């Protein structure tokens, strides 16, 4: 990587405790936090449905010596990630549970607080950082208000949604979000996480995290199909979508299958302007982590070529347990032109970073 | 082969470890129940500081419904993606022949712990 630029499209900054958000909450919602606290749709108030390989799903060496959660200490993040790998820009995706709140107005207040906290403690403190706007996206009207408000700060480069949503993301109810994103000139990023109380697969609760983690790829495919066939891309010609942490080996298979079916079943979706693969190639970008690791590492290159040279954007997922090292994540030699696009060019174009 | 004094006897408590720099290489020295072992502090997977990982044991099962937790403190788990290594040999648990980390002999000379690199 030395000598060429590097953009990391998925880094997690963490709110160490609710107290950190208090200065950004109006008195009415501070009181709510105090009296009621966080009430999410997840059946688990703390932690996750499954233990995720490591505490706080994080690298064991990513706990800052200053205390607090992995991803909560900017200086430590600088040393361990930004400086260590010479990262030119990193996109922060804060997974604080604002979008999951049962009380929608409280969720909106929390989302705004998270965004203001991000401006003050991250974006204004390191010019390499950019961030996604946290929005209460199950209440799309409130999400749109927050997009309009937060987008005034140039450090926000994306709107953050999750793939395990209450309804498929192509549905009309979510359209105010896409309208606002287009108004703000921001792509919509969908990052592995959930707002639903339901099981993590379409067929009930699995026993193991390994099943849950694998099931993510399927959730992303369902969202891609929904966005395409509900006409979101046709309706919002400026809209770009970024898929984060859902894998990518499935892309060629999904494109081929959807195109083949489209030949036979297109009468059902006559408004679609292009074959499904067109939207995947032109309107969707995908981050690389977790990197596919085929049995024969060299098999990765033809896969990357088939997906297309413009689609993939490198990400580390720092500080999480499945972090990818920018210099080691491809366990094979990727041709220089393709490598350059994945590590830098594609993200620069997508997020409109200055050259 | 060079010999390098890395610690005084008693400096690394049993079950403990010390990470040292030898000729630009980071190496972890572990104090096991019956002596010391040393491993390269770089995971063969993606290069994580392997020797900062957690030490645990291995669960084996001689028959259905019967489990044994053995080799306590001898299985080193990578701090990043959790690949496991036998701290005595540097061989990975999942693919011992193909995936392993370099290990170095350690001797004790009176009051000094010595790594042979
Ligand atoms: S770097 Fe050690 S398991 Fe991946």
TrEMBL record, chain A:
GO molecular function terms noted in the UniProt entry: carboxy-lyase activity; hydrolase activity
The keyword RNA-binding is assigned to this record: no
Pfam families the UniProt entry points to: Amidohydro_2 (PF04909)
Domain Amidohydrolase-related: 7-353
GO terms, biological process: secondary metabolic process
A GO cellular-component term linked to this record: cytoplasm
Domain of life, per lineage: Bacteria
Signal peptide (UniProt feature, chain positions): none
Keyword annotations: Lyase
InterPro entries: ACMSD, Amidohydro-rel, Metal_Hydrolase
Record protein name field: Amidohydrolase
UniProtKB/TrEMBL annotation, chain B:
PROSITE patterns reported in the protein's UniProt record: RIESKE
InterPro entries per record: Rieske_2Fe-2S, Rieske_2Fe-2S_sf
GO MF terms held by the record: 2 iron, 2 sulfur cluster binding; metal ion binding; monooxygenase activity; oxidoreductase activity, acting on paired donors, with incorporation or reduction of molecular oxygen
Domain Rieske: residue ranges: 4-115
Keywords: 2Fe-2S, Iron, Iron-sulfur, Metal-binding
Keyword Transferase listed: no
Coiled-coil regions listed in the entry: none
Keyword Plastid annotated: no
Gene3D superfamilies recorded: Rieske [2Fe-2S] iron-sulphur domain (2.102.10.10)
Protein name: Rieske (2Fe-2S) protein
């Amino acid at each position: 990587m030395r000598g060429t630029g590097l953009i990391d499209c998925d880094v997690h900054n963490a709110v160490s405790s609710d107290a950190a958000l208090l200065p950004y909450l109006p008195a009415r919602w501070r009181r709510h936090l105090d009296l009621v606290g966080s009430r999410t749709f997840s059946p688990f108030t703390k932690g996750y449905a499954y233990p995720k390989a490591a505490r706080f799903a994080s690298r064991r060496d990513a706990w800052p010596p200053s205390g607090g959660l992995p991803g909560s200490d900017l200086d430590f993040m600088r040393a361990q990630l930004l400086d260590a790998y010479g990262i030119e820009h990193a996109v922060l995706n804060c997974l604080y549970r604002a979008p999951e709140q049962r009380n929608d107005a409280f969720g909106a207040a929390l989302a705004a607080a998270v965004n203001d906290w991000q401006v003050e403690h991250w974006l204004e403190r390191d010019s390499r950082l950019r961030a996604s706007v946290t929005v209460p996206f199950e209440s799309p009207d409130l999400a749109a208000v927050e997009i309009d408000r937060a987008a005034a700060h140039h450090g926000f480069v994306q709107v953050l949604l999750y793939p395990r949503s209450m309804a498929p993301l192509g549905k009309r109810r979510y359209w105010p979000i896409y309208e606002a994103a287009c108004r703000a000139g921001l792509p919509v990023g969908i990052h592995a996480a959930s707002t639903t109380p339901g099981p993590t697969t379409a067929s009930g609760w699995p026993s193991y995290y390994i099943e849950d983690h694998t099931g993510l790829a399927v959730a992303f495919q369902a969202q891609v199909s929904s966005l395409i066939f509900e006409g979101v891309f046709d309706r919002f010609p400026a809209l770009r979508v970024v898929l984060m942490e859902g894998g990518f080996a499935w892309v060629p298979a999904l494109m081929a299958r959807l195109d083949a079916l489209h030949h036979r079943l297109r009468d059902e979706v006559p408004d679609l302007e292009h074959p499904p693969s067109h939207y995947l190639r032109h309107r969707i970008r995908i981050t690389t982590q977790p990197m596919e690791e085929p049995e024969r590492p060299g098999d990765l290159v033809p896969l990357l070529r088939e997906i297309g040279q413009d689609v993939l954007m490198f990400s580390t997922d720092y500080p999480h347990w499945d972090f990818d090292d920018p210099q080691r994540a491809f366990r094979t030699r990727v041709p220089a032109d393709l490598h350059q696009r994945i590590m830098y060019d594609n993200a620069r174009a997508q997020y409109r970073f200055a050259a | 082969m060079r010999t390098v004094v890395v610690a005084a006897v008693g400096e690394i408590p049993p079950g403990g470890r010390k990470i040292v720099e030898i000729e630009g290489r980071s190496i972890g020295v572990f104090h096991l129940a019956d002596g010391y072992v040393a491993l390269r502090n770089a995971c063969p997977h993606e290069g994580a500081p392997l020797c900062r990982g957690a030490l645990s044991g291995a669960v084996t099962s001689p028959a259905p419904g019967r489990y044994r937790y053995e080799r306590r403190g001898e299985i080193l788990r990578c701090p990043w993606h959790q690949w496991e290594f036998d701290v005595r040999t540097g061989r990975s648990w999942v693919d011992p022949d193909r995936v392993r980390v370099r290990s170095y002999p350690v001797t004790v000379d009176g009051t000094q712990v010595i790594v042979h690199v």
